[in-house]
Amino acid sequence: MSLATSIGEVRTRLANRGVDWTILIWIALAAILIFIVVNPLARLVLSSFEVVDGKGYTIDNYFAAYGRWRYVQALLNTLVMGAGVAVLSALFAVPLAWACARTDMPFKNFIRISVLAAFVTPPYLGAVGWVLLAGPNSGWINRAWVALTGATEPLVNVFSLGGLILIMACNLFFFIFVFVTAALELVSTEMEDAANVLGAGAFRTAFRITLPLVYPAILGGVIVVFLQSLALFGVPALIAIPARYPVVTTQLWQFFESPVRVEVAAAYAIPLLGITISLLGLQRWLLRRKGFVVVTGKGGERRITKLGAWRLPLLGYALFVCALSVLMPMVVLVQAAFSRAWGRGFSFDNLTLSNFQFVLFEHHGARQAVFNSITYAAIAAFFAISLSLCIAYIVNRKLLRFSGVLAFLCMAPFVIPGIVLAIGFYAAYAPPPLALYGTALILILSFTTRALPISYTNSAAGIRSVHPEMEEAVRVLGGGRFTAIRRVVAPLLKRSLVGAWILVFIPTCQELSTAIFLTGPNTRVMSVLMLDFSEEGKLEQLSALGGVLLVITIAIVALGFRIVGRDFMLRRIS
Amino acid sequence: MPVLTLNGLGRAFGKVNAVDGVDLRIADGEFVSLLGPSGCGKTTTLRMIAGFIDPTSGTIEVDGKVLSSTKGSLPPEKRGMSMIFQSYAIWPNMTVGQNVAFGLTLRKLPADEIKRRIDNILGVVKMTHLIDRYPAELSGGQQQRVALARAIVVQPSVLLLDEPLSNLDANLREEMRFEIRRLHDEFKITTVYVTHDQAEAMATSDRIAVMNLGKIEQVDDPHTLYTRPRKRFVAGFIGRTNFVSGKRDGGTVRFDGFSVDADRLDGAARSGPELLYSVRPQNLRLSLGAPEGGVIAVAGEVAERTFLGEHWDYVFAVKEGGARLRVSAPAHDVHAAGTKAWLAIDPALMVPID
Ligand SMILES: Nc1ncnc2c1ncn2[C@@H]1O[C@H](COP(=O)(O)OP(=O)(O)O)[C@@H](O)[C@H]1O
Ligand SMILES: [Mg+2]
Question: Is residue A49 in a domain?
């Protein structure tokens, strides 16, 4: 056989196998990402320049959005609040992370589980708990204070900047905890031993050596907490409005009340986007100046620090944080859920199951909302993971050129607050020809976009853990790429995909800040319904519905622990 | 008939020529090693043979059929080859038996034939009793045996191995290289073996191709390669050596500190006036008195010495010109540093270098 015919044969065979399929896949994935990521973002930016109810472009929306001092004040308020939340979260999280990761403090597992519980409790539910605890007149703390001291003034008032900061920190300090724990577990004890040998005690070593080494993790956590706190809607809706402390998200909400001014809302949201991007840039810049190469994961054992006399004080602090963030709100929420009127306290004749009966059987929308929350979140988590898995595979195996762009698009929603995204989704999907407003699809699409970053991070980690040679071994033995994926890659990824699905499902199931803008009468989800209950003053029913949500969440987490192992929720998320 | 042929094979990554015009013919049933320092392009060559990387120049043929060219390549799954990876790539979700059966099931062999072949090959690699274990429950050496069994059981046209022993500890590595050679003797599969370890290549191969900077420097059987290296790189990479450069001056060749009749030196008549020779430390003899009997005698002194247990490593400083030569001497041959001594060089053991 001549050379030319052999080459010809190879080429025909290649053509028969469809070499160009890769281009088709690239185009398909790119199209999907453009539809669910680029389009909403572009619409957001575009609509901030659109003439209200008209054609053409203008800068007027920005003047409308920032022309009044009240609106500027809300932005400044938000930054103050975010800074407060970030600082308080660090004060909560860093000592607990150090205590749990590196010391012989007792009950470490209990503390870990409480921190996890603080996170899986939706922030607006925590806020309701704190309203019951620290409402100015009837809150439990104030009633106890009045009863004990005979004072006439309440001790604490949750409807204040301090209350806002505390409630947010109680939910968000989890991020710093996870980041710092992961980093601390990598710092070799030899680093600490070197300081001990030179005469430094346990605490001096912790402050001078250990914590500076994990400074990047602390910084990363603080920034994530700051950004998350700016983006929360539920807590400000419950706390900041009564406290007369307007913030950006509540202000955005007002732009959406009639007359709906989407264009002004978009213009008002753009600075939030700017803040997010510049903070992430600042983080990179700060971390570039110093080497933090010590966190290698290798080199030496990791021993725990003996606290001695400090064991109990540290445990006390940890329990104090857990009491603020979970135990106390949980107790009053459970009490309210089983009460006829929560204010009547823990008495036998106040006990009832009617709240659960109400939300599960009587209220016409509640059962539907529970069902909606679960199905939307399940479907969106499935979409997000399937899509990000394809992209992670293509990026990792370098199957396509420019696949890095796809990866970037998957991560892009991470830097955009949910409430800002909601405006983009509204602008992208609500007008004709899609006219999706009020349908389930708009929520599922939005949830999918919101879930992409976490999905992608997890999928990429999973794919990275499967050595390419595992697949190549299939191929030399005569299996094609799809055989390799089906017989080797998929079975190896099964566990981590289940873990990722759960990790995406839980926050999506509780999602409020995009849902609130996009739900219609038939597509309410639990979070939106809870907000309605609180406006109607139905705190007992709200607590019962929150209980239902928590039971579902806990069941899913427990399932995850069974399938994937204990660690899966305490991994770094970004 | 040569079964596997690389014709001017090259691969560039951007501006880097990872593989640069490699020509190699490997006969049916032959065991050939690609030996060279890290980064010289061995893996790239091997992966081009397997079909994972497309060449940017040249072709790969098997039995006269072009498998890879710049115009396109047959995908790996169509080549009927086998490969053993540096990471072993044993699938952790399958048992030993399932791993080994995998290639056979893809070939749609009947079940009893598959079972017979698996039993046979697991017997050969002494893993029969571990057939139902999962890879996580195996030691490194056992995983290596599974990888071998999985690759051989399909009776590939070519077997490719990429540094298969580099993750094993020293004892096991020695055991496994005999194992690999034994399997080759038993099944006679055409084999390309990539390694940076010369002992491994020597122990296993029929021929060794020494690679450097993407090019093949020399291809020969291990003994020839060691005793008659033709390139400076080869002489230096395989074992240790001394290079001595000389100038032809009429009928004699003048080196630093000694001269030799040109007709007693291999290759001295053929090339130009500038000559380079390699002479191994083991082929130099140190003595207190002047050596006799047809060898070149060079006066000088012992400049440095290191005792390595199995032998002495001396550095001999030549009196005239001050050239320094390494000399290997048996343990009982003790000379203090600074001793005036003689060096005996057998001109027959001086190997000309291109
Ligand atoms: N995918 C790649 N992209 C860019 N450069 C590569 C790639 N693969 C290998 N190289 C480069 O090609 C050269 C040869 O690599 P390799 O074949 O792996 O060497 P060896 O296996 O002999 O150590 C090295 O310089 C390496 O950096
Ligand atoms: Mg290599």
Answer: no
How many domains does the structure of chain A reveal? Answer: 2
Q: Which ligand is nearest to the CA of B34?
A: 1
The tens digit of pLDDT for each residue in A410-423 reads 888 877 778 888 88
Q: How many independent structural domains does chain B possess?
A: 2
Could you tell me the distance, in angstroms and rounded to a whole number, from the CA of residue B15 to the centre of ligand 1? 12
When CB atoms are compared, the residue of A3, A469, A491 closest to B66 is A3
- A2-8: Cβ within 8 A, 24+ apart: A3/B59, A3/B66, A6/B61, A6/B64, A6/B65, A6/B66, A7/B66, A7/B69, A7/B71, A7/B72
Collect all residues of chain B within an 8 Å Cβ-Cβ radius of residue A492.
Answer: 91-93
Please tell me the distance in Å from A396's CA to the nearest CA on chain B: 16
Q: Where a domain ends, among B218, B233, B248?
A: B233
Question: For residues A517 and A438, is the Cβ–Cβ distance under 8 A?
Answer: no
pTM: predicted TM-score of the whole model, two decimal places: 0.77
Could you tell me if B40 and B92 lie in one domain?
yes
Of residues B296 and A192, the one with the higher pLDDT is B296
**What is the rounded distance in angstroms from the CA atom of residue A364 to the CA atom of residue A532?**
14
Q: What is the pLDDT of residues A188-242, one digit of tens each?
A: 777 677 766 776 677 777 777 778 888 888 888 898 899 888 888 889 988 988 8
Mean per-residue pLDDT for A492-518? 85
Residue A16: the pLDDT is 47
Residue B184 distance to chain A (closest CA, Å): 19
B182 shares a domain with B113? yes
Report the relative pairing of strands B65-69 and B72-73 from DSSP bridges: antiparallel
Same domain, B250 and B194: no
B47 CB less than 6 Å from ligand 1? no
Q: Is B41 in the pocket of ligand 1 (CB under 6 A)?
A: yes
Sign of the CA dihedral B247, B252, B254, B260?
positive
User: Is B296 a residue whose pLDDT tops 50?
Assistant: yes
Residues of chain A neighbouring B73 (CB-CB closer than 8 A): 10, 14
- Reference B91, options A399, A500, A389, A484; nearest CA is A484
Residues 132-161 (B) with a CB less than 8 A from some CB of A: 150-151, 154, 160
In a domain, A53, yes or no: no
pLDDT at B259 over 90: no
Task: Tell me, yes or no, whether B33 and B167 share the same domain.
Answer: yes
Confidence of residue A571 (pLDDT cuts 50, 70, 90): very low
CATH number of the domain bearing residue B250 = 2.40.50.140
Q: Whose CA is nearest to atom 18 of ligand 1?
A: B43
Sheet holding B296-307, edge to edge: B284-287, B340-345, B296-307, B311-318, B324-330
| Distance separating alpha carbons of residues A510 and A499, to the nearest angstrom | 18
What CA–CA distance (Å, rounded) separates A93 from B123?
58
- Asked if A441 and A317 sit in the same domain, the reply is no
pLDDT band at A302 (very low <50, low <70, confident <90, very high): low
| Rounded alpha-carbon distances, angstroms, from residue B7 to B11, B28, B159 | 12, 17, 19
- CA–CA separation, B243 and B277 (whole Å): 6
The CATH code of the domain that includes A462 is: 1.10.3720.10
Q: Which residues have C-beta within 8 Å of that of residue A165, sequence separation ≥ 6?
A: A81, A84, A85, A88
**Containing structural domain, residue A105:** 69-258+304-347
A250 belongs to a structural domain:
yes
Q: What is the mean pLDDT of chain A?
A: 82
**pLDDT band at A294; cut points 50, 70, 90:** very low
B107 touches chain A (CB under 8 A): yes
CB spacing of B106 vs A467 below 8 angstroms: no
Q: What letter represents residue B217's amino acid?
A: E
Residue with tokens 């429950």, as numbered in its chain: B137
Residue B168 in contact with ligand 1 by CB distance below 6 A: no
Mapped onto helix, strand or coil, the DSSP state of residue B67 is strand
